[in-house]
Amino acid sequence: MIRGAGxxxxxxxxxxxxxxWPEGVPDRLRPLAARGRRDAPAAGRxxxxxxxxxxxxxxxxxxxxxxxxxxxxxxxGTPPPVRLDGRVYAAGVPELLEVVREVPSEVETLLLxxxxxxxxxxxxxxxxxxxxxxxxxxxxxxxxxxxxILAWHGRAWTALEPGAALLTEVIVPRGGRG
Length: 178
Hints:
By secondary structure, this protein is an alpha/beta fold. It is 29% helix and 22% strand. It contains five helices and seven strands. The protein has helices spanning 34-49, 63-73, 93-101, 118-126, 134-140; strands at residues 8-15, 56-59, 82-84, 109-114, 127-130, 147-153, 165-171. A seven-stranded mixed beta sheet has the order 3-2-4-1-6-7-5. Helix 2 (63-73) links the parallel strand 2 and strand 3. Helix 1 (34-49) packs across helix 2. The radius of gyration is 15 Å and the shape is globular.
């Protein structure tokens, strides 16, 4: 059951696709690996197939998250607006909640593209319950390219509280070898 009053809102949490580890490259500048370049478009298709296209995207400023977003959104006709936010990089739950709570109330579906362990911890903090073993799946592992869809009712994003959302789906898309 989804608790709260107000319109149905969805927070879609996307961990960046698999990144490379080039020698001498600072963490923020690490690009996607070949597997990440295959998996990110599959994530975009999975979101479209789940009828879960966002009204707004908030994306970490790290190279691998921006590349993930570009490949994800390349699967859609018209991508939504994106906000690059440096606070999402290496953020914990308090910082991520601050970013989410700043989203305008007219946004019903928000996509947050970022990093672990913060994203996994955010999903577990917000989900009061989950469908079909989704919570257990996230507790076990939230791998690269993983998508968690949280649904809740609220008049504004400022009202999103721990335990208020239902984790409706976890998707781990993988692209083919190509």
